[in-house]
Amino acid sequence: MKPGETILGFDLGNHLFFVLSVEVAGLVAVANFTDSSFPSSDRTCVAHPGEHPFLTKESCVYYRKAEMVALAPLSRAREEGELKQHQPLSPALLRRIQDGALISRFTARDVQAAVRLTLEVSEGR
Question: For residue 5, which of 15, 39, 53, 67 sits 20 to 30 Å off, Cα-Cα?
Answer without folding.
Answer: 39
